[in-house]
Amino acid sequence: MYHLVCVHCGATYSADEILYNCKKCGHLLAVKYPLDTITVKRSTWDARPLSVWRYKELLPVHIEPVSLQEGGTPLYHLKRLGEEMGLKHLYAKHEGMNPSGSFKDRGMTVGVSMAIQLKKKSVACASTGNTSASLAVYAAKAGIPAVVLLPAGHVAVGKIAQALMHGAKVISIRGNFDRALEMVHDLCLTHGLYLLNSINPYRLEGQKTIGFEAIDQLGCVPDRIVLPVGNAGNISAVYKGLLELEALDFINSLPKMTGIQATGASPVVRAIKENLPVVQTEENPETLASAIRIGAPVNAEKALVAIRKTGGTAESVTDDEILAMQRDLARKEGIGVEPASAASVAGIRKLVEMGAIDRDEKIVCVVTGHLLKDPETVIKQCEPPIEIDADLPSLLSALHL
Ligand SMILES: Cc1ncc(COP(=O)(O)O)c(C=O)c1O
Ligand SMILES: N[C@@H](CCOP(=O)(O)O)C(=O)O
């Protein structure tokens, strides 16, 4: 049976205690499995469909999971963009192909299942959009109420539409995401709702399967895994999962974990570049990649370890660089992603230009959310449709034929 362990002081807690922070030092908790008793074989996993639940021996859920077939997302070889950058082995893992259109579904299938396993009656989160959309979807599937707190005016319309349509109670606060997270944390501690942001150690267990799948699809461990970083849960989760695979002798090397942030919201990048022991909060984070508009990443401590221990790096990209890559992915590779997701590939382009990447590396960029999440940012970048009279001459003239 697994238990919870503080990532900072190592204090341990029983698995069924509803805890988000260590009672001794206040830092975050992680799920620790007795890996020496896990006897699953690679061949057993290989025989199952590619999905979060392929790896159930390394997940905490013991009941029938609340599932909508999450995971099993495509790994695309970016031939054209890779060629332009001089990279032969550049891949994108398209997490926008999950049920609600982002990687959060991997976390929520596990997190909402744990809410049921722990007999919680309602769930809540703060969100820049995707967490709320995903929570609303999985709470609907589980048949329990969900409350979501959003930063007013800073959430993409597709994500609000999802949270509303799937029946969550949607509250917009006049404050940013970091404040919304503090508020929902207080609400959950005082009123017993189950908090499903990435400070929930169980939710992140689902997200670690991104790394497992990438390795299974590639047939080897990539040299580098690149992720956009906001609250820093995903990069931490993927790293944790890879450590578990290594401990089980399923892999014998680790990819360089590489985090990409938007220039206006880049506290992790700053900590890496300036070799700071801890991340310093940015009070007024700003980027049009609203999913990663976060100044106080709650998982930063773990993310710094992931990047430093694997010899990875962190880099920031401007909003213009993010949008240029969003267009390039769409037009040169046929891959539709939201701005925050394009940050990972934009970051690699920048690192290549800086000479910081070995061109023979096998690189997996995680592209985290679907293009249709944020249609307004798409429309603003494109020419509007050409409206014509409904006759052939008008059509030919519009096509310059
Ligand atoms: C589309 C998208 N990409 C990236 C991120 C950043 O992930 P994390 O917060 O786990 O660093 C988020 C949300 O946080 C997101 O919604
Ligand atoms: N981008 C996230 C921000 C919240 O992150 P979480 O991983 O702590 O839930 C979102 O979609 O809300």
Automatic annotation (TrEMBL):
State the UniProt keywords alphabetically.
Amino-acid biosynthesis, Lyase, Pyridoxal phosphate, Threonine biosynthesis
InterPro entries, A to Z: Ser/Thr_Dehydratase (IPR050147), Ser/Thr_deHydtase_PyrdxlP-BS (IPR000634), Thr_synthase-like (IPR004450), Thr_Synthase_bac/arc (IPR026260), TrpB-like_PALP (IPR001926), TrpB-like_PALP_sf (IPR036052)
Q: What is the E.C. number?
A: 4.2.3.1
Q: List the catalytic activities from the record.
A: O-phospho-L-homoserine + H2O = L-threonine + phosphate
Q: Which domain of life is it from?
A: Archaea
Cofactor(s) the protein requires to work: pyridoxal 5'-phosphate
Name of protein: Threonine synthase
Instruction: Look up and give the organism this protein is from.
Output: Methanoregula boonei (strain DSM 21154 / JCM 14090 / 6A8)
